[in-house]
Design a protein that fits this description.
about 325 residues, mainly alpha, 13 helices
Length: about 325
């Protein structure tokens, strides 16, 4: 008999689905030319969801289960590093094909630029969103090791202090030193607050904290680059945790189940690793077919491309898995 998922089981996927849509559309507007510096209701909305990437680390902490170190390394490598390597390769091939006809382009320069991006940023220029998979892998391994000796809230504090040290130390270190440390903080906080976040006093404290910090300071941090664009860096942590708690409460509203955001949340990995490549492909085609297309038209066309290709890819993946399962069960 099929078991109907409970509200508790659905809310992480609902929140995840919402944030994936927000992320994809954000990258669509970026490629279309609508980006920072343009005052609009949309840019205000983006500034309001400043806790998007911390939420994904927080979610990883909520579902974390301690394992032997080697087991955790193998499991996390399969789940995170293999997609990272595979879709980095696809992105590099796409970028190479798109740039090879440009004046001054050389294979040596292409390789040098991408290696520099990988060494300093934890991802190739051709698919930069994949930094999260790289950083989450190391945050998980570090947390798994420390969790054997320290409580999760102490690990969160260690991650916070390390992130602040990397932020203010003038050493020119790779960006992932900082975002792994920050990710460790949010991952540990997710493990600590996985149940506590739904206590009413915690929600009230989160609402007060979020409103107070956002109204007074509005910290905006690019977690990938570990760079502060506005506000105070250390306030980003409590403000992000407050935003995460509020979003998780909102995601438990039963009406949201009818929107089917949980379907996107369950297949979030496919959307995450593929959406940038779909947008790049669409932008290449549109530049050649409609070189004078307006920003609004580009946004519409990129959105249509993602709205068709990403769900279609998920459908094909599921059909292939279903066929393989049918064959093995015979």
């Amino acid at each position: 008999m099929e078991i109907t998922p409970t509200k508790r089981q659905l809310y992480p996927d609902i929140a995840c689905g919402f944030l994936i849509i927000h992320m994809v559309f954000g990258h669509i507007t970026q490629h279309a030319g609508l980006w920072q510096g343009q005052q609009s209701l949309y840019t205000f909305w983006c500034s309001l969801i400043f806790f998007m990437m911390p939420w994904f680390f927080f979610k990883a902490g909520m579902f974390f289960r301690e394992k032997p170190t080697l087991v955790e390394i193998k499991a996390s490598a399969k789940r995170l590093l293999i997609p990272f390597a595979l879709f980095s390769f696809f992105g590099a091939c796409l970028e190479y094909a798109a740039k090879m006809s440009h004046e001054g382009f050389t294979a040596a320069g292409f390789i040098r630029d991408n290696l520099h991006a990988l060494l300093m940023g934890g991802a190739l220029e051709s698919n930069p969103p994949l930094w999260f998979l790289f950083s989450l892998f190391f945050a998980r391994i570090i947390f798994n090791i420390l969790f054997k000796k320290l409580p999760d809230y102490i690990i969160a504090i260690i991650g916070l202090l390390a992130a602040c040290a990397f932020m203010y130390a003038p050493l020119g270190l790779p960006h992932y030193f900082g975002n792994i440390s920050a990710g460790l903080c949010f991952l540990a906080a997710g493990h600590f607050l996985k149940d506590k976040q739904f206590i009413r006093p915690v929600l009230i404290a989160a609402i007060v904290t979020f409103i107070a910090i956002f109204a007074a300071n509005a910290p905006q941090v690019d977690m990938r680059l570990h760079h502060v664009s506005s506000g105070l860096y250390f306030l980003w942590f409590p403000a992000s945790l407050a935003g995460i708690v509020i979003l998780d409460h909102i995601a438990r509203i039963r009406l949201l189940e009818k929107i089917r955001l949980q379907a996107i949340g369950k297949d979030s990995m496919t959307y995450y690793v593929l959406h940038w490549l779909v947008i790049v492909c669409a932008s290449i085609v549109i530049k050649r077919v409609l070189p004078d297309a307006s920003t609004e038209l580009k946004i519409a066309l990129y959105t249509i491309a993602c709205g068709i290709i990403l769900p279609l890819t998920v459908f094909i993946q599921k059909r292939i898995k279903s066929c393989k399962h049918s064959e093995t069960s015979r």
